[in-house]
Design a protein that fits this description.
Distance between the termini: 41 Å
Helix content: 25-40%
Strand order of the largest sheet: 1-2-3
Shape: elongated
Order of helices and strands: HEHEEHHHEEHH
CATH superfamily: CBS-domain
Structural class: alpha+beta
Largest sheet: 3 strands, mixed
CATH architecture: Roll
Number of strands: 5
Mean pLDDT: 84
Strand content: 5-15%
Radius of gyration: 22 Å
Low-confidence stretches: 147-163
């Protein structure tokens, strides 16, 4: 199997919050985007926490007697972070998901800046892609049927016609 790494499968455009983001605004974003959580970064893009659905549930539990409390993401986010580097292997990432009750892994560089995110589903897609690669490897003699202009059928036909 190819040695796929975090940088190969991570999502690079990640929804983030700051610790100062209003908690209910963050919850609204999570609900509208159907996300189970999001990374929390400071002004420099350094990962400082993660806000999950579970963290948001603390709002109702903490405010049972006095109504719904107000707060900021920084008041409720998890600070005990599990992260991976861009060079982490797919197998190490899968092991983390199996051994930890997490749904997403922030990918951080050597300065702890957020560079991407990997979900359990991203790992499943990568596994499926690897499986397809091994079940149906492209043979060198197979005709490339793409029409990308780099040697596909359309390009071959155009060359044959002298276009």
């Amino acid at each position: 199997m190819p040695n796929r790494k975090a940088e190969d499968i991570m999502i690079r455009e990640v929804v983030t919050f700051t610790p100062e983001t209003d908690l209910y605004e963050a919850m609204s974003v999570l609900l509208s985007r159907k996300f189970s959580g999001a990374s929390v970064v400071d002004g420099a893009g350094t990962l400082v926490g993660v806000l999950s659905e579970k963290d948001c549930l603390r709002v109702i539990v903490g405010g049972v007697s006095e109504g719904l409390p107000e707060g900021r993401v920084g008041d409720y986010m998890s600070r005990d972070l599990v992260t991976v580097s861009p060079s982490a292997s797919l197998f190490d990432i899968a092991a983390l998901f199996l051994n930890r009750p997490i749904r997403r892994l922030p990918v951080v560089d050597e300065d702890a800046r957020l560079v991407g995110q990997i979900s359990r589903r991203d790992v499943l897609w990568a596994i499926e892609s690897m499986r397809e690669h091994y079940l149906h490897p492209k043979q060198e003699h197979e005709l490339d049927t793409t029409s990308d202009g780099l040697g596909g059928v359309s390009s071959a036909m155009a060359r044959a016609r002298g276009l």
